[in-house]
Amino acid sequence: MRALIGLVAAVGVAAPAPYPVVRPGIVLRFPADHGAHPAFRTEWWYVTGWLHTAAGEDLGFQVTFFRTRPPVDPRNPSRFAAGQVLFAHAALSDPKTGKLLHGEKAARAGFGLAQARKGDADVAIRDWRLRRSEDGRWATRVAADGFALALDFRPTQPPLPQGQGGYSRKGPKPDQASYYYSVPHLRVTGRVKRGDVVAAVTGEAWLDREWSSDYLAPAAQGWDWTGLNFDDGSAMIAFRIRRKGGGTLWTGGSLRRADGRTTVFGPNDVAFRPLATWRSKATGAVYPVSQELSVRVDSGVRRWRLVPMFAAQELDARRGGLPVYWEGAVRTQGGRGYLELTGYAQPLAM
To answer: Where is the AttH domain (predicted)?
Structure first.
């Protein structure tokens, strides 16, 4: 975050324009909502998944692009004003080495350096890019120190609106929320480069899209989030916003069955129980990398055990002035997905 603060501070312009408030009643419209919503303060395009090589290896990957609108007066005539700032993370989980390879980029929009286009998904920072084609396929290309990803994603299911038709509460106040939808069960093909070795891969991925102006309550420490693709074609998101000092501030998520029936989880329907922790030697943070997830569904409680591909999947982006968090591939009974743990190194500010 320090890199973003530095970019904003360099502008030195007061009297920022207000941000739009997230409210219920949204009607998601595609392909427009795949594209950027530059009036909102924060937005991201997030893809994670499991990959499989011809040699029988399993790999995990993450590609995330963030867009933020700093508090800069839009009337500022300077072409150097940081009206929009983009940053991105990419990571590759390799259980053979037990290491998470990762990289990051950041730049203000414009000058041919970075863009987040409206109308459909096309977001880029220099040579890193995530875009959607008119035929509905998504593609990403990123190259970082020690690895590169060239992946194509074909949707097999329609978008899954989260919360109330895409309005997803994140706290006790109605405006502590985001507009949010997911695209689970993306079919993946492409190539992964590790060092000088290139391997063809196939797999399955999950896409998340969120935009917001007031994402977290002041009392929030961070969140535990999981997105799971199940073998039977169903898909589930579950999250909890953790309270500073301990406990849960808010929960939510949804389960869409293979036949399309969807259950939306309320603020008392989700619980995470730590089963095993891992301490980062780099940051000292202790993460609950294996958890039992309980959700209230079908007049009962169902439980899933989330087991990481391996423990050391912390993304330490302090070198680029960006946050530290744990983002890891996980297995569960009848499915696979990703688990994200934020606010364990320090409280998350958004």
So the answer is: 42-213
In a domain, 350, yes or no: no
Pair of tokens at residue 340: 């994200």
Establish whether the linkage from the previous residue to 267 is cis, with ω within 30° of 0.
Answer: no
Q: What are the helix (H) ranges across 28-148?
A: none
Write out the residue range of the structural domain in which residue 46 sits. Answer: 2-12+31-342
- Report the domain count for the chain: 1
Q: Kindly tell me the burial class for residue 259, based on how many C-beta atoms sit within 10 Å of its own C-beta (0-12, 13-18, 19 or more).
A: exposed
- For residue range 205-258, list pLDDT tens digits in order: 999 999 999 888 999 999 999 999 999 999 999 999 999 999 999 999 999 999
211: domain CATH number?
2.40.370.10
Confidence grade of residue 77 (pLDDT, cut at 50, 70, 90):
low
| Cα–Cα nearest to 92, from 38, 146, 158 | 146
Q: Which residue in the block uniquely carries the two structure tokens 């106040």?
A: 173
Other beta carbons within 10 Å of 63 = 24
Residue 168 structure tokens = 């997803």
Q: Which residue has the tokens 């073998």?
A: 231
Let me know if residue 39 belongs to a domain: yes
Secondary structure class of 9 (helix, strand, coil): helix
Distances (CA, A) of 13 to 9, 16, 71: 8, 8, 8
- DSSP notation for 41-67: SEEEEEEEEEEEETTS-EEEEEEEEEE
Q: Is residue 26 part of a domain?
A: no
The whole-angstrom distance between residue 262's C-alpha and the CA centroid of its chain comes to 21
Predicted confidence (pLDDT) per residue in 305-318, tens digit: 999 999 999 998 77
Nearest to 184 by CA among 244, 129, 257, 117: 257
